[in-house]
Amino acid sequence: MIRSRWVGLLVWLLVLPFAAWAVLRAGGWTPVWQWVALVAFTPYVAVASAIPLLLALGLRRWAAAALALVTSAVLATAVLPRHFGDGHQPAFDGGRLRVLAANLAVGAGDTDVLMRLVRSLDPDVLTLQEVTPAARDRLEAAGLRERMPHVVDRAVDGVWGSGVYSKHPVTERPLIALGRFRQARGVVKHPSGHEIEVVSVHPCAPRYGDRVPCWDEGLRALPRAGGQLRVLAGDFNATLDHRLVRDLLDSGYRDAADVTGNGLTPTWPQQGWEPVPGVTIDHVLADSRMAVRSFGVHRLPHTDHRPVFAELGLPRFTKR
């Protein structure tokens, strides 16, 4: 009898943390600042949630099994759609917009490899994060300005710089500057006639408690969807399991990785920079009026992030 009670207690002790995780993730609450980083690992927790479910079923602890089943269902509902493509696509007869985003890790990203990506993928727009003046100069010496002559240059030493390079004319918009992080933005004049605002996204990394407010403000400062076509591309320091990213999607964006069934492909860390499982914190968010024709994650030596690329289809341009 005593042994049975201890077994029951241990089963509940295993089930309850997963249930709490599911509740916090679904509700979007942040009980402690560490949760901001932890919730990014929800896909792994969703897989692991099968363990207490199977254990409870095997031991015939039916109440615990029922809670474990609900927990697994909630987590699976949050995570599994990212593995399957979205079959619904808006019409895209207004041309294409190819977007590449890369975090250069304080300018250390390999110039030659990035230029090979630019030549092979042929982006219309390149957004850079953690771009330093030295990295900018190397890229431009390697021919970046010849291929993409229009630029919003907000490069600075350290992790705070960013930039937007474009094949097409671009008009700079006011910088989003919070906690020294400089999120460059500009309006690209596309040959189709569309004017598309592009933001090089890079809020603070929420590594410590005093950085979480800056991270929060940096994501909240990003423009909501609606009106003018917009694309947000770069290092969000957040996954689709963060409420602030889901709020952006709810405003009228779609995540290109999610739409194409690549939403669980990790973008950070690469090359053993951090002893943690990979998570998806680099994104291309496109206005829901755009089609997502393709998406890919690529490798770039000497940086902890993997560049992301999306080809977007534009709606037919109508003069106002």
TrEMBL record:
It holds the Pfam family Exo_endo_phos. This is Endonuclease/exonuclease/phosphatase family protein. The keyword Aminoacyl-tRNA synthetase does not apply. One of its GO terms (molecular function) is endonuclease activity. It comes from Streptosporangium vulgare. Residues 110-305 form the Endonuclease/exonuclease/phosphatase domain. It comes from the Bacteria. Signal peptide: none annotated. Keywords: Endonuclease, Hydrolase, Membrane, Nuclease, Transmembrane, Transmembrane helix. The chain crosses the membrane at residues 32-55, 62-80.
